Amino acid sequence: MKLIDPNHPAYRRLWVRIAIVAVCFGWAVVELVTGDPFWAVLAGGAGAYSFYMLFWTFNPQPPAIEPPVQPDAEDEDEPAATAEKPSKDGQAE
Questions:
Q1: Which residues, other chains included, contact 57 with Cβ-Cβ below 8 Å and sequence gap of 6+?
Q2: Cα distances (Å, whole numbers) of residue 3 to 6, 43, 79
Q3: Domain spans of the chain, in order of start
Q4: Terminal CA-to-CA distance of the chain, rounded, Å?
Q5: Does residue 53 contact residue 2 with C-beta atoms inside 8 Å?
Q6: Which residues fall within 8 angstroms of residue 59, CB to CB, at 6 or more apart?
Q7: What are phi and psi of 86, to 5 degrees?
Q8: Among residues 51, 29, 52, 55, which one has the least CA distance to residue 40?
Q9: Can you tell me where the transmembrane regions are (predicted)?
Q10: Are 74 and 66 spatial neighbours (Cβ–Cβ below 8 Å)?
Q11: pLDDT by residue (tens digit) across 32-89?
């Protein structure tokens, strides 16, 4: 299960990735200083995970560009389906 998608365009800039990791580790330090080791471990774990995803395994893929859709050659040869059909007496309706 990936919590951070490294291919998201928001993570392409280096300063964004650095800020995310720094805030997580900084908050872990704040929690340690104030005497709450449980939240420090959680924030440190978030920092470690974000470092792993955003720096260690960061390999962004270029955005996939889909070619424009071309109509098939078979579709051009078929008559239009909306053509009026003649009635019983040969007159078009």
A1: 6
A2: 10, 15, 52
A3: 19-56
A4: 61
A5: yes
A6: 6
A7: -70, 150
A8: 29
A9: 14-33, 39-58
A10: no
A11: 999 999 999 999 999 999 999 989 887 777 766 777 777 666 655 555 556 566 666 7
